[in-house]
Each structure stands twice: as C-alpha cells, then as structure tokens.
Amino acid sequence: MNHSGQASMEFVLVLVFMLVIVAAIVLPLGQTLQYALEDVSVTGHISSGINRIESSVSTMTIIPGNSRQDLDFFLPGNTRVLCNSVDNNVGFYFELKTSVFDASGAVPAGCTENGIGSVPAMSCVKYYVFPPSADLRCQGSATDEFVLESGQKGFSQNFRLGSKYAPGIPNVPSYTIDLNVV
C-alpha cells in the first residue's frame, strides 16, 4: 500500500496550523513591541531635551554675567513645545501609542489615557520649571508664549538660551533667560 499522499496531506495540515498560530500570536506581539519601542524613543528625546535645557540654565545661573548657549535637539513627531513666560516653564506635549503604567499600576504623572477602543494611547506633558532666580522670556517677551509643533515626522530644532545678569535687587530674579527658536 502506498500512503505517501496521506503523509503529504498531514504535513500540509500541520504547516497550515503552524502558520495560523504565527499569524494569530506572533504578529500582534510584534506590532505591540514596535509601538513600545517608538514610545521609548519619544520619551528619550523629550527627556534629553529637558536635561539639556536644565543643564544650560544651571550653568548660566552659576556663573555671573551674560551668556548664550545654543541647544540642538530632536523633536519627535506629534510633539508640541510650549514656552510659557507667565508660569516660568517650558512644556513638552507628546503622545504615546501604548498605555504605560508604573509599578503600582497607576498612570504616570503628567499622562492621561485617551485610548479609543482597542487602540491604547496616552497624552503626556513634561515640564521644565525655571528656578525662582531666573525670569523666563519667550522670544524676548515677558507676557507672550509660543508653541512649536513638530508635525508628523519630527525634526531637529535649534533653541538659543540667552541670560542677562542683574545683581543686587532684592526679591527680583537675578537672571533673565530668553528662550528663542533659531
């Protein structure tokens, strides 16, 4: 008796079964992993930008005198930078494609869940608040603010921080720091 046709048919069925498992389990996990990696990249770029501003401001306020520093960092896609001279801060608004939770299961500070249906997403904002000794100006104005939007793909942006030192006036910030988009 010749059973080679039956063995070939069983092999094909096992192969189809394996492909169904791969399609049902592995591919969705790959998509989730891709979103998680993109979110890590976005938060890394935002943290890097905030750290550069913080480091530059710290250096400027330690050394008396006038100074200028140019900062160049990448703004990820769908990011907004808001310079707010009234609140003395710079905010970075960004979207995450996956829901992120801390060790206790709570949503991280500065983030809100806004997922729709089966697509989880979070809107986050991270601020750098200037020290009380520094008076922030946005594009030279003490009352205006500006918003810079990165668009879909993101881009590298140059910011210029300039500081002016005004010593000896009680209860008045001793530095005026101007954040400009160059």
Written account of the structure:
This protein is 32% helix and 35% strand. Strands 4-5-3-2-7 form a five-stranded antiparallel beta sheet, with helices on one face. The chain has a four-stranded mixed beta sheet with strand order 1-8-9-6, covered by helices on one side. The protein has one helix spanning 4-62, and strands spanning 67-76, 80-84, 89-96, 111-113, 122-129, 134-138, 145-149, 154-165, 175-181. It contains one helix and nine strands. The radius of gyration is 25 Å and the shape is elongated.
Shape: elongated
- The percent of residues in helical segments reads 25-40%
Give the helices and strands as they follow along the chain: HEEEEEEEEE
Give the count of helical stretches: 1
Number of strands: 9
Distance between the termini: 83 Å
Largest sheet: 5 strands, antiparallel
The class by helix and strand makeup works out as: alpha+beta
Beta fraction: 25-35%
> Mean of residue pLDDT?
81
Please list the strands of the largest sheet in the order they lie side by side: 4-5-3-2-7
Instruction: Indicate the radius of gyration in whole angstroms.
Output: 25 Å
The stretches of 5 or more residues where confidence is low (pLDDT under 50) are none
Keywords:
four-stranded mixed β-sheet, elongated, 182 residues, alpha+beta
